[in-house]
Amino acid sequence: MTGHGRWRGTIAATLALVMAAASPARADDGYRLWLRGEAPVGPSARVTVRDETATLRLAAEELTRSLPAGIADVTLALAADPQVAALRLPTASLGDEGYLIRRVRLGQRETLLVTGNSDRGVLYGSFALLRQLATGADATRLALASSPRVKLRVLNHWDNLDGSVERGYAGQSLWDWWTLPDFKDPRYTDYARANASLGINGTVLNNVNAKADSLTPRYIAKAAALADVFRPWGIKVYLSARFSAPIELGGLKTADPRDPAVAAWWKTKADEIYRAVPDFGGFLVKANSEGQPGPRDYGATHADGANMLAAAVRPHGGIVMWRAFVYADTDPEDRAKQAYSEFKPLDGTFADNVLVQVKNGAIDFQPREPFHPLFGAMPKTPLLMEFQITKEYLGFATHLAYLGPLFTETLAARTGRGAETVADVVDGAAEHHALSGMAGVANIGRDRDWSGSTFNQANWYAFGRLAWDPTLGAEPVAREWAQQTFGTDPGVVDPVVRMMMASREAVVDYTGALGLAHVMATGHHYGPGPWVSDLKRPEWNPVYYHRADRGGIGFDRTRSGSDAVAQYAPALAKRLADPATTPERELLWFHHVGWDRRMASGKTLWEELVAHYDRGVAAVGTMRASWDALRDRVDAERWGKTATYLAIQQREARWWRDASLAYWMSVNGRALPAGVAAPAHDLAWYKAQLFPHAPGHPE
Ligand code: BDP
After folding, report:
1. Does domain 2-146 match CATH 3.30.70.20?
2. Pocket flag, ligand 1, residue 325 (CB < 6 Å)
3. Interval 346-375: pLDDT, tens
4. How many CB atoms are located within 10 Å of the residue 687 CB?
5. Are 515 and 589 in contact (CB under 8 A)?
6. 290 catalytic, yes or no?
7. 392 CB less than 6 Å from ligand 1?
8. Nearest atom, ligand 1, residue 386 CA
């Protein structure tokens, strides 16, 4: 930031027209995401920038590009600008990244002022202004102030150096590693812009299943090129670090974090990275999980490993995001318990530039999981929430599943410690942590529409908005996304929001409700596989999770079973220990219960489960009908692709239901309740389905 330089520019309307012309010829292929502001018709707003920084210039371009003609005069300025300071606006509480928008008199002029303590704040304010206007706010009454509740709002790309994306369903990686650093695809800028519009301020470029190569000079230069593109948009670059890199790249005999030579190697490596990327964010590490190397290989702890890396980046202001997603084949303990068992005792031993990154649930991004018991259990450690935006377990790119309700359900969950919610833990408010963060495993690829479908864009959007403010509701976020994506006509927005809000529950219902989890096919995770029982590691088998037998179904996680409930705060643990006080939607996660158990509806558990499958399939039918009715109100291209995907989803929902019911009946020996349709095929048929080359799972 150059603080007091003066660059007074009025960016001409022609710029906006040039940019509009440069946008894709097929205007509705989804490329523009939610940023569809049109070039103004008639005179564009006069946008004055009072401080010269690259970021403020971008903010001005955004406004000039999209502000409707009704807004005559906008000023972008830092709060420290003497003229702005003289107004004595309440900017002190905005922090580093917040913004304030007010109609003020500046000098001789009435203007709409967008200000903040940093140029990033002003950029976020500019996008907020556009969002408000695109969702129907009255420009004459605008008075906004907001600052992010979470500091690190980060995408995790599971992108491999060969261009494939682990669990990616939107094409190849956006990063063309081969042509970097020379060629900076304009898409990198568009990516950064889309993220900035949501307040996302960091991106981890490479897969957590990392290759050491990403730390070689060649790849550091490539990452640096991306960092240069992202910087003015307020986005920092991070890298996933392979823990054994000192061996693979440095020729050392060990990667033991307690070995001074290892620590020195990482320090030198960090210095090298910071020479190329002065504002490098730091490292993300998956250690001792699913075959990845880590400190446990040497009898050292996760804290030893994290702190050693933290020391390497500390002189440069970097951080370490150390994942808690660990479970070991040598450990017979309930997989849902292992991360807590491993990490809880380490609370208080992590360096203060380490965050422990915890998945929303204790198993693995299932359509529904209770919140991870680590939230609330490590008060001395900042816990960074990890959500999966890419829908590995919710139908890949083809199923419509709006994840807002999944995210908010977790964030709003009460930890059992007074009124504390998971969001309070994540935003650091509960313990006044200096660091806080939320990570989303990206669903972005080289597909023209970025995320594989129009509605998947909403999940990227919702992640960003909820990372800024975890207390925003899923519904308002869906609404503002729909308004920006399809226009403000309530005749479109209302049905679209209804579809979105029902969609995730539909997936839960047709894949396995009432707390069932991990019942999908092996490897690629496409489609049902509740029968799978022959994999090497017990906790890779669906039968390990549902434990269905003739008498009942579900995983006993009470004291008579694995006692995972004891990992929650006592008040909550007590409720979860009793099936009668466990929410039905989580029943089979915590309890093994009889097929004839009476449910709140009066149905038996078996009847209830069947009803959920049918409800899920029916809900997809309803979504399809709603979308059909919008045929003339949504552009043909986005309408057509979505319609086709909904047809796929309907077929696959039915497949999930039928295959699952066929299997459950083979286990419990029961008939279907009267009037319920029989599966289309026998169980053997479903078991015989094979899907080589399914996406997201390079063989
Ligand atoms: C699982 C994915 C696997 C990831 C792993 C992780 O199936 O591809 O590597 O999570 O988060 O959901 O590390």
Report:
1. no
2. yes
3. 999 999 999 999 999 999 999 999 999 999
4. 17
5. yes
6. yes
7. yes
8. 11
